Amino acid sequence: MIRLFAAALAAVSLTLPAFAQDSDAASEPRVYESRGQVTVNGERIRYHAIAGETYLR
Q: Is residue 18 pLDDT above 80, yes or no?
């Protein structure tokens, strides 16, 4: 009986990822921006970094 329960639990748990689709997958890709500065050898360097998400089909 325990083996049957364990087998049924394993079968159900293997199918769960197929139903766990993200609803956010259709949303717009997010963009992240950062500005800052760093001093190297006495010289100030300013930077502006932009990163974003890319969805592959």
A: no
